[in-house]
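Board notes, transcribed. Complex of a protein with flavin-adenine dinucleotide.
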Amino acid sequence: MGPVEGRGGETPGRLTMQYHLDGYRPGDPAQAGPPAAGAAGPADALPAELAGKLPGKLAGKLPGKLDVLIIGCGPAGLTLAAQLAAFPGIATAIVDQKPGPLRLGQADGIACRTMEMFEAFGFSDRVLRESYWVNETSFWKPGPGPDTIIRGGRVQDTEDGLSEFPHVILNQARVHDFFLDVMRNAPARLEPHYASSFRGLTIDTTGRSDHPVTVRLERVDGPRRGEVETVRVRYVVGCDGARSGVRTALGRSLTGESANQAWGVMDVLAITDFPDIRLKAAIHSADAGSLLIIPREGGYLVRMYIELDKLGADERIASRQVTVDRLIAAAARILRPYALEVKEVAWWSVYEIGQRLCDRFDDVPAADAALRTPRVFIAGDACHTHSPKAGQGMNVSMQDGFNLGWKLAAVLGGRSPPQILHTYSAERHGVAAELIEFDRAFAAMFGAAPKRPGDDGAGGIDPAAFQRYFVKQGRFTAGTATRYAPSPITAASAHQHLARGFVVGMRFHSAPVIRLADARPLELGHVLKADGRWRLFLFAGADPADPASALHTACAALAGSGPVGRFTPPGADLDSVIDVRAVLQQPHRTLALGAMPALLRPRKGRFGLIDYEKVFCPDPGRGDIFEHRGLNRDRGCVVVVRPDQHVAHVLPLDAHADLLGFFAGCMA
Ligand SMILES: Cc1cc2nc3c(=O)[nH]c(=O)nc-3n(C[C@H](O)[C@H](O)[C@H](O)COP(=O)(O)OP(=O)(O)OC[C@H]3O[C@@H](n4cnc5c(N)ncnc54)[C@H](O)[C@@H]3O)c2cc1C
């Protein structure tokens, strides 16, 4: 047996960074410079001196016709835009009513699963470098004396082997920056149109229009303030947050918990003798309330979530006029007997949140689903809201965007029929409903008063029970528990036993391998790039070099009248739609790439150069993938992976007709 899988240990080049020592400074920490003066306060957009002076395309007019219009530059909208920017043939625009990019605040928790997605977009290394890594979580409860708290437990944050990436914390604004860089550098060279506010839409459902959605937008800043633009669009995606105008325009609403919970959150530079200030810590005091400490990137900054009062029906937290001084005082009370001296407040906010869900995430009523396909979608907070305690808002919103992006690209590129767009609402509504259930239970536990030592009565929560619940739900909060139900893009496989560790419907769980051609150790999951391609992993049986082997036969079937041959457009690279990779069982030094099927050495590009990076072998030093993912060594198998990294099917290597049948059901 190989070594136990780890959680992405520190490697050279992934050095930790210290910053914010002399005050909080937004932006790229690698850029030296003085701290921003007077950053305190709930400001979250571009500095005023830049607003209205945005250059070129940022301030330019939208084209009259678009393939996709995304409303909102939050995590959901930017993930979607970054995905669509990979396709220069698709006319995409993204707008936001703000004058510029987010600079401070909002969410900060980045789940392991989200890091895997960042790897697909090419910036996981930047996040790893800048972020705080959540390795352990501690739990504090009331102590024996008045006004005391004691540590009740301390646990590893994420179980071993769950992901090759850690759970990290980084300012949402930096995540936005990285997506903006991806968009800027992608083939479509996409930049947001800021200061442009959604005002309404109409949908032509007759099926006669190529661009059936008409959207009205109003300029809300700069010299063109008040100007209204009308754009005709094939698909609109409302990523416009909890008060979504797109959702309202569809006649949909968020329903759920009506008694809203108010939250105070502040990012501070502070001096304290609380011992776990650099650990994620959940603190239940006896009488002063609950506090969640989230250490932040840079080594000094700390976020504190303070639960405030329940609000009345329809009451807004703004009406309570909560000040940052009140938040600081509340945090200091909860932390007693430890001292808290806040030196600078980098950002703070009070906001109310309910557990709310929209019944569908697109414009098609259930009764019409067989008659027409969706034209308008909503994603992120626009269709689900929940408390920030489990750190899910940003993560789930980004996964919404990732789920939808490749589907829109496939339909607009003519590779898939528009019917696959129905799966967006079906799949993501299921995830959001689960999240809201989880959040309700988690929030109730976090908010309840703790049981006092020796109190066996019914009231209050046992802090040990809270800790147990936290550990049990680890996979859920890591984002790795999502499992999509069978649909045209996810099979109801009868062959799961051939690859027990690649569960159909769940994300492809990476494992270490060695690339055959150049002996490079890497993570197999990192070949899954956010480029809209499907991937087939052929896990080979006994003798992969034998021309009569199942591997050779499978490759010949794929390339001929199989899915690769059938769905690759004439003249395109052989891996441009379905990218085939093989994983062999033998040590890499015992095999020759030249003995592998031609499909695994495709000739590509202008010069017909050979792609040498399709074949992998186990890396026994880091754990044998066949063992770790429960792969059948005698028979091998095919694992089909969707463009959003979810496993779509597991089949025997010789199930050629079934594999073709699966692709014929979701490709045009
Ligand atoms: C003030 C605030 C504080 C938060 N703090 C935390 C936190 O501490 N921890 C946590 O986990 N989560 C927090 N959240 C929630 C978290 O940020 C969200 O779950 C996450 O950002 C959801 O992403 P999204 O893309 O769906 O929406 P958002 O991030 O809300 O983005 C929506 C975007 O749409 C734009 N928009 C809205 N209306 C229009 C319009 N009519 N026209 C054009 N553009 C429009 C907005 O300007 C915004 O940029 C906070 C959210 C807010 C708003």
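Confidence is low (pLDDT under 50) at residues 1-13, 35-57. The first strand starts at residue 65 and ends at 71.
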